[in-house]
Every structure is written in C-alpha cells, then in structure tokens.
C-alpha cells in the first residue's frame, strides 16, 4: 500500500513542513505503508528528507503543468490510498484537488495557519493553537477537522527526552539559538549582540538549518564579540532534542522549534521572523509559557540582553515557563495523526 505526501522546504518557508511530513512517512513505513514524497525542495535538502522519511522522493518542476503531469503519472502508477498536503499555496488549488479526486485518493491537509482555512479535502489537521471549531461557522467545505496542538506533528525523540528528569539550574550557563530557514542570519546576529552585553558568560549553541546558505558571517561576529559559540549543523532529532534538554533557555522563532522545546520543558524566548509566528508566541506568552519580544526586526540587542540578565538568576520563573509549556504540548500529535490516516486508508 502507498501513501503520498506533498511538502516543500526553502529559505522562505523553512524546513518545518518537510521535517514533520518526513516523520509521518517514517511512521507509516514502520506500519507497512510505503510513501512517495513529492517536493520542490532544494537539491541539498533532499538527503535530509531521504534520511528522515525513508520515502521515495519525486522532485517536481517549478511550472504547474509539469508538476501536474508528473503527479498524475506517479499517482496512476502507484495508486496511493491517500495524500497529505502540507503546502499553503497548493492545498486550495482546484487543479491539484481535481487531480487527486480523479484518482480517488483520500485527501489530508495539515495547516499551522492561525486563521480559518477552508480546504477542499477529506481530513484537515488544523494544528495551530489558535484554531478551533468556532472559527468555521460558515465554512464552504466540510472535511473532518481536528483542531489544536494535540495534532501538531513532533518527532517522537522529543517525547523520549520529556520523560528524563528535567533539572532547572540556579543560573543560566547554556543558551540555545534556533530560527527557521527564513533568512535567519539577521535574527541570530541580534541574539549574539545581546548575549555579548550580559555580565555572565554563557556557552551558546546555534542550530543552523540545511536550507540556510551559510553562516561564516555569524562565526566572524561571534569571534569579534568574544563569545563561546558552537554551531550545530547535524540536524537529527536526537541532536536537537539533546541540545534543548541541556540548555537553560532557547531563543528563537515560534515555529516547530517552540513546540518541540515545549514538549521537553525548555524555557523559551521568542523573536519571530514572520507575523504568524508572532501570533503563536503571543498564545504561549498569554499562558506564561514563554516571553515574546515580537518580530525580530523590532528587537534591540539591549532589550534582549536585559531580559537575559533578569532571567539569569530567576530559576523559579524559568522553571514555571518550562512546566507550563509542557502542559500545553504533550508531544503525541504525530501518533494521533498517523492513527487517523491509517483509519481512513486501511
């Protein structure tokens, strides 16, 4: 039996879409369901998808007609029972939807958009924390919808680390920095300048996305500022989860990384790259599960530096943030999504 996935990665949208769908593909494989992964991701990202998903990868061309022809050929040949679409530009495109309907495929859609999204599909996972049934009183389509962070797809490695005892240190000594692929260098630069202003001397680890084109400018900035910085470029879930577990705070945008950190209980400081992430961070801050500084372009290094200085010895505040975040995200979203998929296609 085959299942299909449609998701992309790029410097504009980051790596999160293909990461979570690769995890879905890998789980389905473990249950005897083979996956075809259709993507327009850059070539250097394909090994990441292959290693994480163990799926058959099909690279689509940029032009729509070419993509439709390739999709039709593969769908006719492999006859997948369902397709998961994790791509906002195509989930509402009637040409693609018509093709899937023609092939009699069950259509699943994942969206982390905070706004209502009427998608002509059979099953829709509305996994943004702002999503709820009340947002769809006049919906024009009627898929089966599953709402909220209960269905946010997170790799099971983070759930494993959740069950190790979490210790919150008296003082901050390790800072983790994680931004998405949406041109993260300027945001990380602000963080490094902020860290250089504090009176303590933390070790800083920066996670670099495979879609980021380079980070030599960050190495030079860290050297000029006299900071102890490690760059993590091997992006296995194990490495990221371990880094989050060992860190006293995480600084980054409120995308996938924020919810992964929530599963483990790592205190989170949000500097967001796009408005959607800012809405996610506001949700977490309202529940005292993070500190939100807004869009990164509006954040001054001195402002972030003063916040770190205050948090330096505030163990109870950091511990409270981490534990409240753990209550919001239980890390079992992928498990729920996979079981729902299987119930429809088996």
Beta-strand residue fraction:
15-25%
Number of strands: 13
Task: Estimate the helix proportion, in percent.
Answer: 40-55%
* Number of structurally distinct domains: 2
CATH class of the largest domain: Alpha Beta
- The CATH architecture classification of the largest domain is 3-Layer(aba) Sandwich
Residue runs with pLDDT of under 50 for 5 or more positions: none
Radius of gyration: 20 Å
Helix and strand composition category: alpha/beta
Largest sheet: 7 strands, parallel
Strand order of the largest sheet: 3-2-1-4-5-6-7
Count helical runs. 13
Shape: globular
Overall mean confidence score, pLDDT: 93
The CATH topology of the largest domain is Rossmann fold
- In angstroms, what separates the terminal alpha carbons? 9 Å
CATH superfamily of the largest domain: Glycogen Phosphorylase B
List keywords for this structure.
Rossmann fold; seven-stranded parallel β-sheet; alpha/beta; 346 residues; six-stranded parallel β-sheet; 18% strand; 2 domains
């Amino acid at each position: 039996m085959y299942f299909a996935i449609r998701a992309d990665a790029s410097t504009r949208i980051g790596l999160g879409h293909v990461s979570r769908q690769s995890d879905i593909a890998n789980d389905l494989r473990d249950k005897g369901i083979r996956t075809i992964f259709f993507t327009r991701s850059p070539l250097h990202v394909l090994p990441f998808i292959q290693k994480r998903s163990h799926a058959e990868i099909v690279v689509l061309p940029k032009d729509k007609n070419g993509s439709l022809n390739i999709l039709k050929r593969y769908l006719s040949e492999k006859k997948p029972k369902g397709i998961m679409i994790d791509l906002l530009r195509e989930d509402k495109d009637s040409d693609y939807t018509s093709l899937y309907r023609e092939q009699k495929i069950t259509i699943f859609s994942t969206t982390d958009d905070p706004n209502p999204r009427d998608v002509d599909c059979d099953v829709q996972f509305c996994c943004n924390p702002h999503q709820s049934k009340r947002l769809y009183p006049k919906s024009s389509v009627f898929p089966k919808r599953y709402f909220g962070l209960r269905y946010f797809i997170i790799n099971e490695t983070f759930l494993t680390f959740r069950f190790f005892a979490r210790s919150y240190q008296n003082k901050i000594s390790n800072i983790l920095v994680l931004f998405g692929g949406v041109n993260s260098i300027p945001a990380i630069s602000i963080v490094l300048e902020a860290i250089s202003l504090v009176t303590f001397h933390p070790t800083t680890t920066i996670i670099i996305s495979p879609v980021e084109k380079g980070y030599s400018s960050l190495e030079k900035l860290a050297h000029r500022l006299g900071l102890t910085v490690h760059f993590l470029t091997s992006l296995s879930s194990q490495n990221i989860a371990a880094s989050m577990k060992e860190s006293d705070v995480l600084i980054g945008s409120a995308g996938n990384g924020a919810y992964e950190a929530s599963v483990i209980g790592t205190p989170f400081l949000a500097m967001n790259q796009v408005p959607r992430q800012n809405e996610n961070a506001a949700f977490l801050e309202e529940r005292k599960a993070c500190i939100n500084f807004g869009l990164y372009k509006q954040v001054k290094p001195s402002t972030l530096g003063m916040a770190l200085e205050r948090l330096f010895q505030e163990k109870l505040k950091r511990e409270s943030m981490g534990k409240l975040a753990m209550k919001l995200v239980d890390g079992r979203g992928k498990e729920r999504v996979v079981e729902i998929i299987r119930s429809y296609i088996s």
